[in-house]
Amino acid sequence: MEAKKTVVLGVTGSVAAYKAVGLCSALVKKGVEVYPVLTQSAVRFVAPLSFESITHTPCAVDQFSRETPWEIEHIALAKRADVFAVMPATANFIGKYANGIADDLLTTVAMAVTAPAVLAPAMNSAMYLSPANQHNMKVLKERGVRFVEAESGPLACGDVGVGRLAGEEALLAAIFAALYPKRDFAGRRVLVTAGPTREPIDPVRYISNRSSGKMGYAIAMAARDRGAQVTLVTGPTALEAPGGMEVVRVTTTQEMYDAVTSRFPGMDVAIKAAAPADFTLDPAENKIKKTEEGGAPVLALRRTPDILAALGRQKGGRFLCGFAAETQDVESYALGKLERKNLDMIAANDVTKPGAGFDGDTNIVTLYARDGAKVQLSGTKRAVADALLDEIAKRL
Predict the structure, then answer these.
(1) What does the DSSP 8-state code read for residue 18?
(2) What is the C-alpha separation between 156 and 123, in angstroms, rounded?
(3) C-alpha of 63 from chain center
(4) How buried is residue 193: exposed, middle or buried, by Cβ count under 10 Å (0-12/13-18/19+)?
(5) How far apart are CA 3 and CA 237, in angstroms?
(6) Which fold has domain 189-281+296-395?
(7) Would you please indicate which residues are annotated as catalytic (active-site) residues?
(8) The pTM of the whole model exceeds 0.90
(9) What is the pLDDT of residue 66?
């Protein structure tokens, strides 16, 4: 008989702390062993006895408790966890976790835990959207911490906006996804491209686009987490290189073409999420100066190599997925690209739509498959990445 899975559940000092009691109950009913860890602030909102009555395990609060003097409690809890979840997570906890501060029991557990971590923020919308909190969440995401994004609606302070703790079903889904991760890409070799490319005009200027690389990086990390051997070919981005994969950095479209086409024969799946520049030119040796007459220089542009078309020509039995960022006639352009470039699937989005544009953390895409399927995906870029891989896995 399989041993019970264990969740160490952190609860911080948010008004939403009471919802963690219901979450505990739902986890226990599903056969999960739960070890609650409450901060001193959380105790002001909900009593430890509530958790103990449901979980039948001790609720840890005090870092220097002598109830189990033979154990170093934060280490014992960290080792016990199959998943470390903090629901709700305040801005204070997120900030400490991101910056390596361990000054109470929950943050010391967070520092010691090696199990997958899942956080569900809950706070006022101004705090949630503050540059500091968004930066701290970004840091944690880049380290592999998963987030159940806050929802919009009425808040405890009377405001209306983003910051509400996600619903119980979403919290449970995130915990179980971490407890029972998919390994459906184990043994598969997956090539992912991400970000823009840059075509130099002169030593200080270049042609590029607004791609941030976030979608491609999310796909690469999702494939890695599902067991794939991943190669990420990335143009210039501000993102930290993900661990657990080969990362190949390029600048120009020609460099991306060379890196991708040389590696493609050894792959099982290729997902072209990058946005390489379509045009290049012969760059000037020195910085182009403005003239006294005020005229603009004429740039003689020429086409860059079409990476996706080249992969389509040599596809063989490999699975090839492209992306199409459009501003009009999305379906028509996507289906044309699917056929013209010999793709198995294409993910198309209208970048003018809110939540689907460049540099955001969410996306809205429609998948068009060669078998005629049409699937709508939306949510965080990581959620879209996992849903995209679900669709690819069905067809491998």
Answers:
(1) G
(2) 9
(3) 32
(4) buried
(5) 43
(6) Rossmann fold (3.40.50)
(7) 157
(8) no
(9) 52
